[in-house]
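User: Sequence for Major facilitator superfamily (MFS) profile domain-containing protein below. Tokens please.
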Amino acid sequence: MSKTSIFAPLKHRPYRMLFTGQLFSDLGTWLDMLALGILVAYTWNMGPAELAALTIVMGLPWVVIGPFAAVWADRLPRKGLMIFCDLLRMLIVLGFVVAPNLYVLLALVFFKELFSAMFDPARQGAIRTLVPEEVLLQASSLSQLSLNVTKVAAPVFGGIIIAASSPSFVFILEAVLFLFSMMFISRLPHMPKAMAEEAAEPGTAKRESVFWKHFKEGLRFIGENRVLATAIILMAVRFFLIFLYDGLLVLWGKEVGLPEEYFGVLLGAVGFGTVLGTLAVGQWNFWSPKPIQMMAVTGAISGIGILILALGSYQVIPSHPALWVTLFFFVGFIGAGSAVPYGYVLQKETPSAIIGRVTGAANSISNLSMFAAPALGAVVAEWIGTGGVFAIAGTGTVLTGLFALLAVRKAEAKREYAGKVDGLHG
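Assistant: Structure tokens for Major facilitator superfamily (MFS) profile domain-containing protein:
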């Protein structure tokens, strides 16, 4: 178990600037989640179809364009690219304020998410470049902490602002956050391009062939690295199973008899559990030699929590608000046991020169799995009920973790056997 504090990377000024810039960027990324929905549904009096379109446009760049955009995160200077993405996102969210209709708003949202999908791989690459190897795990954990905290806190903060003012004020504040992000990232030291330019040859065709070569290198690296591929697949399956039931939480709450005012408490419990779990997993990193096993075990345990939610839906266990708040906290806390090791694997297993492309491909795989899950969950709920969806998700989460654990142990046994055979013949 490492005695290095999770906050140790902040002693290094370059990482401190990067982390602060990321914190402001993450706040800006998530601040408008509620405000955009309020603008469409309440200000413009639109319905489910328009809200669905907004959700799709938010995710589309990460799935379709993110892996291609991530190539540029490895081809361009990372500091300049992050500043460029912050600048354009700042201008785009100011455009939200004056957007005259849904079509313009959707176009602006699309481009904001596109530049977010470019910012993230560049940030991952900057961590790999700036942080000493001995505190890479802690730096990755802090980065995950920023994401987890802002994903929960920023929409809530946005909702408070809307209640006191309007969505437009949220968008203006969001622009200020991206400005602050730019200010801190501009104080980073110069980081050279991750990839040296290939020998320049005239003609667009050559440039395109180089681009596709670099794009395929990222995918090939994932396919050839068993640990990295396993971590990405595990997280993609986990995200799919989470989003299978995520949209049904309101129906689940009605079935267990929770008053509507408890939903905010439940979400807060998940967020608080995730934050504490991230701090704990980042600090007590006994798992660092075997991150896949950590992901598998915590995944299986969190699946048990989801199965208990299914039992509540079927009225098998007595329903009490304190029980559900505690359980949601537990699921969030244990969930960090997968998220933090996953981020560490991305950093540890990937060379700096290609981490942008690997991150972009991993984000695309995860977001693609999330795209299909909510619609499938709704269809299955119509067929076997809300509790059935939670039961499927919980069982799938447990089995995925157990299968991954057995697969890793089998691979370790093979390596040990091969080592013994080599020793006999040596």
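The chain has two domains: 1-188, 226-426.
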